């Protein structure tokens, strides 16, 4: 990526305060793979209140210059999302991210977001490997995942989708982003 470096900060999602913003993001056609296109505002509030109360699932807003710029969720794959679908290892963390639709796309923005999310996850020395399970049809995110070091393992069937189970170790991430 050329040009200026993008810097992001993170804060926990406030389910009530952030629900209207998140609703506008997750119901947009660009967010089809987030699977909340038909959600009402109350559905979004409820979903993020459940996440806020869940010790194994966390939602964060990524901020750029103090303004919400993207959403990321992390989860313990031994307890959420992938339970029983693969052999979870100590140090595994699951991750989702969403960049909202915009009328003024910025080249390199989404790659900067996933890079920042991964860097933040690997700041925790207990995190050894990041796990993702995007829809097999989401080729755009597969390319982004590969750009930060993810290696696909296999397709799996989740209740809501056929997913591409992929992993990225700290070493794979560092090699990908310094190449």
TrEMBL record:
Residues 11-58 form the Acyltransferase MbtK/IucB-like conserved domain. Pathway: Siderophore biosynthesis; mycobactin biosynthesis. It comes from the Bacteria. Acyltransferase required for the direct transfer of medium- to long-chain fatty acyl moieties from a carrier protein (MbtL) on to the epsilon-amino group of lysine residue in the mycobactin core. This is Lysine N-acyltransferase MbtK.
């Amino acid at each position: 990526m050329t040009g200026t470096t993008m810097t992001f900060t993170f804060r926990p999602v406030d389910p009530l305060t952030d629900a209207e913003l998140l609703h506008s993001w997750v119901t947009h056609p660009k967010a089809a793979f987030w699977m909340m296109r038909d959600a009402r505002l109350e559905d979004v509030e409820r979903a993020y209140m459940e996440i806020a109360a869940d010790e194994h699932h966390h939602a964060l807003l990524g901020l750029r210059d103090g303004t919400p710029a993207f959403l990321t969720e992390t989860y313990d794959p031994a307890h959420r999302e992938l339970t029983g679908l693969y052999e979870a290892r100590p140090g595994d963390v699951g991750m989702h991210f969403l960049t909202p639709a915009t009328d003024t796309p910025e080249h390199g923005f989404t790659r900067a977001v996933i890079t920042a999310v991964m860097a933040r996850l690997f700041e925790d020395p207990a995190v050894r490997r990041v796990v993702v399970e995007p829809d097999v049809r989401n080729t755009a995110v597969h390319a982004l995942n590969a750009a930060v070091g993810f290696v696909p393992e296999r397709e799996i069937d989740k209740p809501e989708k056929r997913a591409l189970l992929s992993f990225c170790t700290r070493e794979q991430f560092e090699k990908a982003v310094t190449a």
